[in-house]
Amino acid sequence: MLKWLAEKSLKARVAMCIKEVKWDLQSSSRLARSSILLRAQIFRHQVLQPHPFAAAVLDRPADFSKAEVSELYSKLEGMRNEASIGRDRALKQLKALGADTSLVKGNMNTVIRGIELWMCTLGIGINLDNRDEVALLWE
């Protein structure tokens, strides 16, 4: 029963992530979309590429077990959550100094969306029904 609930919860988190990223990309300017796609590639190159297993799962998430994909998804989700907390702390400290936070906030949000784009990609390995929708995110 718990395994079923955990899988359902994971599928719901993936679906929400896809929905949020899709909405953000659709409502963003072309430049902002390009920046998110670029940040996603930089994140992959700098953080994930040195780990052959992670790189392979990102290339072909449907070829790996749900357990393997879910584990990597959870790790990226944790990184995204830590980045969000770090962003909020940094913005709070900058505001306390009286600094303009708009540029920092925009850059940090772009990095977070780049991580989420890879989370969406991993969502294919969690639920194959996500394949077409995720492919559209990369266009």
TL;DR?
This protein has 139 residues and is an all-alpha fold. The protein has one domain (30-137). It has helices at 2-27, 30-48, 52-59, 66-96, 102-126, 131-137.
Number of strands: 0
First-to-last CA distance: 38 Å
Helix-strand sequence: HHHHHH
Low-confidence stretches: none
Q: What best-fitting shape do the alpha-carbon axes yield?
A: globular
Q: Total domains, how many? A: 1
Mean pLDDT: 93
Class from secondary-structure proportions? mainly alpha
Q: How much helix, percentage-wise, in residues? A: over 70%
Relative strand content: under 5%
Largest sheet: none
Please tally the helical runs, counting DSSP H or I stretches of 4 or more residues: 6
Evaluate the radius of gyration.
Answer: 16 Å
Structural account:
There is one protein chain. The longest helix has 31 residues, at 66-96. This protein has 139 residues and is mainly α. It has one domain. The protein is globular. The protein is built from 6 helices and no strands.
Blueprint of the fold:
Blueprint: H1 2-27, H2 30-48, H3 52-59, H4 66-96, H5 102-126, H6 131-137
Helix pairs in contact: 1-5, 1-6, 2-5, 4-5, 5-6
Task: Please give a handful of descriptors for the protein shown.
6 helices, 139 residues, mainly alpha, single chain
